[in-house]
Design a protein that fits this description.
Distance between the termini: 102 Å
Order of helices and strands: HHH
Number of strands: 0
Structural class: mainly alpha
Strand content: under 5%
Helix content: over 70%
Number of domains: 1
Number of helices: 3
Oligomer: single chain
Length: 107
Amino acid sequence: MSTPTKPPGNGELQAEVLRTRADLAAAIDELTTRLSPGYQASRIAHDAKQAASDAGAMVSGSFDNKNGPAQDPRRARNAKVLIGATLGLVVLGTAVAVTAVLRRARG
């Protein structure tokens, strides 16, 4: 037979409530920080700078597994997206320039 357990005392219950409140307050503070526009903007700026740096390293071939985005798939994806977007803009700009030149040549 199992031994009946003694119900927690008033002091133990109050201590548990205080711990739970502190944990909840910490979780709310962390969520508030993570969801703030300033924090999000700083994360986006950091990720964009890192993607530009990684893209430059990928293009120049100056990175290896220790310092390149190969260790983090998200960083590698961001660098590839940045390279693709840059190439897309170059192609689009070239197409617009060629179209403008051809239109002027026609008359």
